[in-house]
Amino acid sequence: QVTLRESGPALVKPTQTLTLTCTFSGFSLSTSGLCVSWVRQPPGKALEWLAMIDWDEDKYYNTFLKTRVTISKDPSKNQVVLTMTNMDPVDTATYYCARSGRFYAFDKWGQGTMVTVSS
Amino acid sequence: EIVLTQSPATLSVSPGERATLSCRASQNVYTNLAWYQQKPGQAPRLLIYAASTRATGIPARFSGSGSGTEFTLTINSLQSEDFAVYSCQQYNDWPPSTFGPGTKVDIK
């Protein structure tokens, strides 16, 4: 059974750095063709893809966030980590991690973690 | 960046009726399009990929069609558990993959 679970702070202050961890089970990110992405959703708004890392450790970023976001993986722990610098109130959202094939649809999602940016 | 437009924004349907949702892409995405269902407080759930292929465990009352820039999600004989927000996603052109704004299907 494939599961993903996000963890991280619920509240961060403006200008701080956000670090979120996706812990997954039921698959290996060393398996050719598999990827994990981060997707966020501001309250009442559309889903927004942020970043993806694949089995070969290639990384892809949404261009509008590219300078602020870093994605990495720890295969030994079955974890993918997202860091986002210089957080702003507009970054308030539910952050999801999701599995896909490379450049494909997301077939499994975590339950999401709500992050509020406020002083 | 490919922009996805969904219509209508809200669709009011009676249980047992059919719902037809539209997703339009600003550029050709061929059949590289997926549909997701999302209920309040829950993560998205993959319904359809490759424009018309149902994901594992998705009931046959959900069907997808289209190619290029015009896509349709049809839900036949709506059940109570189908009232939700439906979003489309294109994965033809990465990065970024993009999502539509969603269509809310509510009870008439």
Question: Explain this structure to me?
Answer:
Chain A is an all-beta fold and 119 residues long. Chain A is 0% helix and 53% strand. In chain A, the strands form two sheets. In chain A, strands 2, 4, 5, 6, 9, 10 and 11 form a seven-stranded mixed beta sheet that branches. Chain B is built from no helices and eleven strands. The model of chain B has no long low-confidence stretch (mean pLDDT 96). Chain B has 108 residues and is mainly beta. In chain B, a hairpin with a 2-residue loop joins strand 7 (62-67) and strand 8. In chain B, the strands form two sheets. In chain B, strands 2, 4, 5, 6, 9, 10 and 11 form a seven-stranded mixed beta sheet that branches. At the A-B interface, strand 5, strand 9 and strand 10 of A face strand 5 and strand 10 of B.
Give descriptors for this structure.
heterodimer; A: 119 residues; 4-stranded antiparallel beta sheet; 53% strand; B: mainly beta; 49% strand
Brief synopsis:
The complex is a heterodimer of chains A (119) and B (108). In chain A, 0% of the residues lie in helices and 53% in strands. Chain A has 119 residues and is mainly β.
SSE blueprint:
The complex is a heterodimer of chains A (119) and B (108).
Chain A: E1 3-7, E2 11-12, E3 18-25, E4 34-41, E5 48-54, E6 59-61, E7 69-74, E8 79-84, E9 93-101, E10 106-109, E11 113-117
Parallel strand pairs in A: 2-11
Antiparallel strand pairs in A: 1-3, 3-8, 4-5, 4-9, 5-6, 7-8, 9-10, 9-11
Chain B: E1 4-7, E2 10-13, E3 19-25, E4 33-38, E5 45-49, E6 53-54, E7 62-67, E8 70-75, E9 85-90, E10 98-99, E11 103-107
Parallel strand pairs in B: 2-11
Antiparallel strand pairs in B: 1-3, 3-8, 4-5, 4-9, 5-6, 7-8, 9-10, 9-11
